[in-house]
Amino acid sequence: MNRKKVIIDTDPGIDDAIAILMALLSPDIEVVGFTTTGGNVSLKRADRNALAILDYLQCNTPVYSGSAAPVEGRFRYASQFHGKSGLSKKLPNPTSQISSISAVDFLAKSISDNPKDITVIALGPLTNLCKLIRTHKDIVRQVRHLIIMGGALNSKGNVTQYAEFNFFSDYIAANEVLSSGMPITLVDLQTCRRVGIDRASASNMISDSKAGSLTTELIINWFSADSTREAFEFYDPLAFSLAINPELALCQNMTIGVETEITSRLGESKILRYEGNIRIVTDVHVPKFFDLFKSVLNIRGI
Q1: Quick one: 275 exposed, middle or buried, by C-beta within 10 A (0-12, 13-18, 19+)?
Q2: CB 159 within 8 Å of CB 138
Q3: Whole-angstrom Cα distance, residue 187 to residue 181?
Q4: What is the mean pLDDT of the chain?
């Protein structure tokens, strides 16, 4: 069976961690490598979390460290959502090591060596990809597909009224990547908010697998950390799932920009034209997503 080759660019993060677990367990996916960036947590913590998850599952997929700061300024992190460590369960300190090759160099070599065969799944700020485009201008024609979790089109942001966290964290990178000409599928907040579970459903989840059990712990512990939390939404797992089954989503092609001027609308996603190379997810088949999620991670009870 020909498995789809993917590189996952990530800042784990609870929902990132679940997407990573799904990627490692999916029979349809070959993870060529993970690249890390600051965002939800610091780069050092993102590296540590990625390695800890891989060690926990006894996987030896390589991890390549990326950007500690956005193109301009610094990352603000999301400890109010993910906690200071980024994960809601303490995993043992990893024994495996970060690769000596940088994230950008790894992306460039992997894509160049496998033209039109690598799907990149971007789950955090787009800094690594922006640097890749700036230093390897022809790379945009060699990427098979770029799936991005980010932006807030026709919906309220989660950092400001207008901006979603990933795009707000590096608005310059987001704008440059979206205008690069790569074949892109964008999974924004409006779509992600349709795919969630409540506290009662989370408490009913059970699994006989190590990855499934870790997933249930991450979600249940996230609810336990704050009694006011009503729903856990599967932002990054949904974006990853489209690499397995694009038919989970309905899409419309558009041209998208990101506000880079320092105003109250900084980081806002803007529809520039109702045509273009960016496939915007406009609807998602929620039951099919959960069927896939449960099947890959061997989870029951929801």
Answers
A1: exposed
A2: no
A3: 17
A4: 96
Polymer length in residues for the chain: 302
The CA–CA distances, whole Å, from 301 to 35, 158, 202, 203, 213 equal 33, 29, 8, 9, 12
Is the pLDDT assigned to residue 21 strictly greater than 70?
yes
Query: Pairing between strand 4-10 and 118-122?
Result: parallel
Q: Which two tokens stand for residue 66?
A: 């990326």
Angstrom distance (rounded) from CA 249 to CA 194 = 12
Specify the DSSP class assigned to residue 81: H
The distance in angstroms from the start CA to the end CA of the chain is: 30
Over the stretch 242-259, which tens digit does the pLDDT of each residue have? 999 999 999 999 999 999
Question: Bridge-partner residues for 120, per DSSP?
Answer: 7, 146
| Spatial separation of the C-alpha atoms in residues 92 and 85, rounded to whole Å | 12
- Partners of residue 142 on adjacent β-strands: none
Q: Which helix (H) or strand (E) holds 290?
A: helix 286-297
Q: Which residues of 133-153 are buried (b: 16+ CB within 10 A; e: fewer)?
A: beebeebbebbbbbbbbbbbb
Q: Give me the residues paired with residue 279 across strands.
A: 185, 253
Q: Which two tokens stand for residue 117?
A: 């065969």
Q: What amino acid occupies position 55?
A: D
pTM of the model: 0.97
Cα gap 116→131, rounded to integer Å: 20
Element (H, E) at 40: none
DSSP category for residue 28: T
239 within 8 A of 145, measured Cβ to Cβ: no
pLDDT at position 154? 84
